[in-house]
């Protein structure tokens, strides 16, 4: 078999123009399909010639590269790499104006709901991101692997035909954008089933829902769709110890030749939760989550047969000959659940926006199951005792039945166990089927209002996530900016974005408190928990200038409140306790953000800035923190969204930010009483004016 060609954007957008041909407005121009036509036969009646499809694919890639939101779409373009390096060209004002009037034409032409990511809207162009430098202007030359998304659709019997069709349209759009789809059906209800009895009623339900899903996907996915029932095997011995790796008794992919060739061609396999015993080939009902984990192990290349050297059904030769980095890559785990994202009692919209699993998994799971850990100054205590070096491994790899797991807990568990097997770039999204069905087809409320003002079409969260690798709403925004209600989905949670993430080290343990005789400040250069040279290198890299280390240490000596370190020094923060001025003798030490740094390669993507910020404002300084920034710093837009208030200091060089509530109100009351100074406002201003920059170049302040 010849080597497969690199699956670049020229291959992965292989059916570019079909989706809108099936909307009601265009149906008259498309010949009706014969209902007896095979489900696997692509709709050749509407296919374009190959050269036209290639031109369409190049067109959308060019628009993504040249859009005002290229800093968002560049993450997608970098991940789904091109065969050739592409330079971006700046758009003139005339081109921008022309493109504004072509928004609806672009959506009709592509059939892919890119939201406003390449529409030159001013709001999108000015959307803040934590980056100090302009993004790289070239896409590196390389060959990309086969990108795969694993979709679990729960409770399809509760979806009407229109919603199911919207989901099918969205999944077909993901295929056009290079993300090949495999669908696992889960017909279980909200209550977690006790047993897995293979009864006739369940079989009939699954068969009917498989047919509905296949019909919907076949309507929109040009390459086709196929039901795959015989790819999975299961051992007779039950798996009593659920772990992240394959153990005896679990579900396993026994015939990957029924999956990978389909995915390569853009065909969507639909997999019911059915497996066959390895000894006598008896049909068994299995947990849909176990199917997801079995497919994850398969696509990650760590199945039991590969570890045992078995040659039963090896990877196809043309895939096996590729380098490891060019083999299939499971990019996304997509859980479509009517309940929506993971519940959070601390957010006004009732759901976690982003979960950094490495840091938050245990805490979120304990909250869902009602299990509480005691927190000391040194951090949360292990259920097995903090002195046991085995406890962390046990708790992170075994799901203990502290209480009967609910559906949110099961969704969290399956995502955590799957992402542990995948590269750090992989991620998961838990979302309602209704939200996933948002498409580029006109919606009723998209019609022009009597005032003549037409609202933009809603973004599809799945397409947005693929292009940006981010949630729809930043997780580090203050709760006050999060909508408290969702008119479209009143009973479901908003989406939750999850990544394997990075560990976060907080020194000392949060929350931070002012120093006392019994609890003195740490010293950065001598604390054994801090790799001081790497911390300085992080600051130098983030600010793109050298720190005068000696002068800086002298300035913060005896003032350090704490340090946050994200991952392998990918991001971090240094905070201090600043003395209030003599005019404010009654004010306690002021919590001050002295340095907030994210490595250049992680700025604008990856969520590192959000992770550090959430730790800073929600754990370390929940009552508020003060900082300043150059008035022309490009990060200020990002800071502005996350602050309670801002003020430009006299002189024009600095802008003051704070997250403390009530600062302005307190100042207004002081002014009414005729008090000139002495309150928090005066202390904040004097602290920001008094901090001396300590950069080695001695140039502009920063």
Number of domains: 3
Q: What's the total count of β strands?
A: 21
Straight-line N-to-C gap: 59 Å
* CATH class value of the largest domain: Alpha Beta
Entry keywords:
21 strands; disordered N terminus; elongated; 702 residues; eight-stranded mixed beta sheet; mitochondrion; 32% helix; four-stranded mixed beta sheet; Aminopeptidase; alpha/beta; Carbamate kinase
Topology at a glance:
Elements: H1 9-12, H2 50-66, H3 70-79, H4 93-100, H5 103-110, H6 122-125, E1 147-154, H7 161-176, E2 180-186, H8 200-220, E3 225-227, E4 232-234, E5 251-253, H9 260-264, E6 268-271, E7 274-277, E8 283-285, H10 288-300, H11 304-308, H12 317-320, E9 329-336, E10 354-356, H13 357-369, E11 375-376, E12 379-380, H14 391-397, H15 407-419, E13 427-431, H16 433-436, H17 461-468, E14 496-499, E15 504-507, H18 532-543, H19 549-556, E16 560-566, E17 571-578, E18 590-598, H20 608-620, E19 626-630, H21 636-642, E20 645-648, E21 654-658, H22 663-673, H23 680-690
Helix pairs in contact: 2-3, 7-8, 10-15, 13-15
Could you give a quick summary of the protein structure above?
This protein has 702 residues and is α/β, with parallel strands linked by helices. It has 23 helices and 21 strands. Belongs to the acetyltransferase family.
